[in-house]
Amino acid sequence: MINIGVLALQGAVREHVKALQAPDVNVVVVKKSEQLDQIDGLVFPGGESTTMRRLINKYGFYEPLKHFAEKGKPVFGTCAGAILMAKELVGHKEPHIAVMDITVERNAFGRQRESFETLLKVKGIGEDVEGIFIRAPIIRQAGEGVDVLAEYDGEIVAARQGPFLACSYHPELTDDFRMHQYFVKMVRESMEVPA
Amino acid sequence: MEKRTGTDLVKRGMAEMQKGGVIMDVVNAEQAKIAEEAGAVAVMALERVPSDIRAAGGVARMADPTIVEDVQNAVSIPVMAKARIGHIVEARLLEAMGVDYIDESEVLTPADEVYHLNKRDFTVPFVCGARDLGEAARRIGEGASMIRTKGEPGTGNIVEAVRHMRMMQSQIKKVIGMSEDELMTEAKNIGAPFNILLEIKETGKFPVVNFAAGGVATPADAALMMQLGADGVFVGSGIFKSDNPEKFARAIVEATTHYEDYKLIAELSKDLGTAMKGIEISTLEKKDRMQDRGW
Fold this sequence. Notes:
Chain A is an alpha/beta fold. Chain A is built from five helices and twelve strands.
């Protein structure tokens, strides 16, 4: 059995819990930092990154989250989640949890009226992945060792760096769970590393 | 690949991202910054908070576009704004200004007493108030992407929001438990579009995000609404009409996240200063009840 957590401070938590369901997966709704000790992988859901960050600080999640990632445990961030993971944020001095060598720009497509859906070609996942972009960020730069998984209109919208997976769009809002299955596989593989 | 804007998924999805959060009424850039700093997931830009609208009387309209723009420039979280019920042009103006969500709101004086907006026509998503499932389903039928209770705005009294949330939740459960051949009669009885009830029955859930609004004044009020099944909370007058807006705003955000952690909410509620002054609903005259605006 593998235990995968969804950070439940704010945002679309329920959808990720549903998308992660698998016979050998136990999904944990993470509201307290102690719960990080019980899980093998973690999802940062979509929501408002400023709100999540404030609650991360307030409830002592900051160090435990950094530690969790430093141990090489897999993390998957969608939209606001990708913002939390980036080491650089366009227009901001300080990043958030800063675990992935990507530069992310918030609300990069514009306001809500510019939000859209489209089909994406995602490396290792499929050529017809539904991409729901809501006030979405763009990955402006990907550092060395970052594998670009998907682009839209010449901009990076999904990437992986070792145990870290980030995307600008919201696979959790669709019934297409391939991105989540891909992440579950990442978690499973991370646990197979011989001691 | 083809790019589609303003689809149901995109409009409803935007509200999904607000779940577990607090949306705060603000009347200027400074308040908007306080709200963002406190952890609000969005702000509602308006000219006056509901309790001041109540006190001022007269006709309440869409906010001056300058206020909306100031707020948009001040924060990076989504900005919502209110249009009068049925006021097509106010809604179009807000859409043109790039507001992220429009509240077709009973807090403002209705522009049309018969027809609500055809919200399907717009790219921008809408939130609408409702007192029961029939009203919520009618608004969804017109294209609303998010629902909130009406409550009784600007009173600081939670009783009406509780009534509306309990009513909706019990009606939703009833519909889910019904057999399909009972649905048309239920649709007729509560004045709901049949297809919305069918969707609720088939999926086992309400099709859009459902927030609490109208009377939330304390952290405990916010947590109460979450326990009754709200996906999140709107706070109108409750924050900036309290003694200490920063503290109140932060406490309400935290109580909404940890709505079942009573020790924490007790801690948060200490030394908050005075909450907004409330109004007992039975002392309101019928003409002053905002929730009876719209149908």
